[in-house]
Amino acid sequence: MSEIVQKRIGRGLKLSDLLVTVLVSLVLGVVYHFWSSVYNLFSPLFFQADELVYGMWFLAATLVFLLIRKPGVALIAEVAAAHVEILFGSEWGVQLVLYSILQGLGAELVFAAFRYRKFSGSVAALAGIGAAIGSVIPDFFYGYVQDYEPWLLTAKYAMRAVSSALICGYFAYAVVKAVEATGVTTLLRPVDPKDYAALND
Given a cut of 80, is residue 193 above it in pLDDT? Predict the structure, then answer.
């Protein structure tokens, strides 16, 4: 049975996996583009209040991974969504390429730490925070935050981390659970490894 399991739940990406990843990323890339309006609505509330919704820009990485559950899709999804946003004429332009790579890697490393076998809201939340950490690097590289006081840096990135955990973690998990209830995900992962494990008991 173990050899059959390995064949059926192989972790290599298939064409269907890539197509779903790109399709979801296209949709989220459009969402990313229009999310700038929401982001700007929060700015006047108080300084750095826009960080409270910043996590939306990492959603592709966690949402697609929770759907496909294979290595590499978090990074691919985040980069693909960023390219769609660029095509829509994002004000941040090609900077988004660097952001998307580091954000996708941040999420990917968290999923890898759990050996790509944990799909809970908590793990997705940690992956969202990982993506947020990845976004800090280009913030410094492009000179956006060098002059901030330590307390402001702490507050800024703490809000970003909370936003990422909520949006990329628990919101993404809820969305995937809702999709699973429709039965659509059986097309992506027809048999759960737990089902095989039950057969071996």
Answer: no
